[in-house]
Amino acid sequence: MTTAVELAHLVYQYAGEDQERALNDLSFQIEEGEWVAIVGPNGSGKSTSAKAINGLIAPLRGEVKIFDTLLTEENLWELRRQVGMVFQNPDNQFVGATVEDDVAFGLENQGIPRAEMVARVTDALAKVRMTDFAKREPARLSGGQKQRVAIAGVVALRPKIIILDEATSMLDPKGRKEVIETIRQIKEEAQLTVISITHDIDEAAHANRVLVIKDGAVALEGKPEKIFSYGEELIELGLDLPFPEKLKAALKKRGISVPQEYLTTERMAEWLWTSLSKK
Predict the structure, then answer these.
(1) What is the pLDDT of residues 15-43, one digit of tens each?
(2) Which among 74, 262, 251, 82 is positioned nearest to 163, based on CA atoms?
(3) How far apart, in Å, are the Cα atoms of 203 and each of 75, 200, 211?
(4) What average pLDDT does the segment 200-220 reach?
């Protein structure tokens, strides 16, 4: 399996701040085609790690490799084309008067020929189910629609890696679901590597693997069900628990035997229905 991203012993500290290092000997690998969620409390270093991957900051020590190529000043722009980022506030990313203009902006900067640009914009909008909104002003869209347009702008550039940096944190539950489903569909179609930087533990449940960052280093690592099984330890790390785990904890306190393995909300509902039907 090909390694898409490798961080080795990264150290970083923001200038002019008398605080602990934002990254403190941070190391991890992400394989091509994985969806990895990086979670942690505020100030843990998760967003700083995303900036290091995309070359937005240069670590004081350590190495960043993208598909086995060491990230340097000389190849920064070349490697950055392989890594697309979707940020927290889509309004800060819009530059076009219409949706299609905005999606085309990055392609224009890369000098893509017009015929290919039109085809890429059309394809990207179709992938995020925003074709009917191509002529709309971005400001007139809902939060979820705006974020899907921001994703289309990244998809049109055809990176191999997409980083979602708290991309759903400002959305309502409906918008959050729209964005997650869009990313899942695009990932499967294009075999993308997805890195989700989030404090939303429910969003992390969609990933193949979860990295819990604390004080600039990896504190826990594993599949979502393994991470969620830590329960109280996650709370001590400043994180929440998914609703099914909270429900299981409440049922345990009432003396009700519950499954040990992690259950999604749907599977938890099925288990409850089956259990109640037996009584």
Answers:
(1) 765 667 899 999 999 999 999 999 988 88
(2) 82
(3) 33, 5, 13
(4) 89
pLDDT value for 94? 79
From the centroid of its chain, how far is CA 140? 25
Give the 3-state secondary structure of 70-131: ECCCCCHHHHHCCEEEECCCHHHCCCCCCHHHHHHHHHHHCCCCHHHHHHHHHHHHHHCCCH
Which DSSP symbol is given to 215? T
Give the helix ranges, DSSP H, for the chain: 46-53, 76-80, 99-109, 114-127, 143-155, 173-190, 201-204, 224-228, 232-236, 243-253, 265-277
What SS3 state is found at 177? helix
User: What is the tens place of the pLDDT at every residue in 236-249?
Assistant: 877 877 788 888 88
- The structure tokens listed for 61 are 């020590």
- Res 126: pLDDT: 92
Measure the CA–CA gap between 60 and 108, rounded to whole angstroms.
34
Answer whether 149's CB lies under 8 Å from 175's CB. Answer: no
Instruction: Determine if residue 61 is left, alpha or beta; phi over 0 gives left, psi from -120 to 50 gives alpha, anything else beta.
Output: beta
**173-190 helix and 143-155 helix, angle to the nearest 10 degrees:** 20
Tokens of 158: 């055809």
- Cβ-contact 50, 163 below 8 angstroms: yes
In 3-state terms, what secondary structure has residue 167?
coil
Q: In whole angstroms, how far apart are CA 199 and each of 88, 173, 176, 210?
A: 12, 15, 13, 12
pTM over 0.90: no
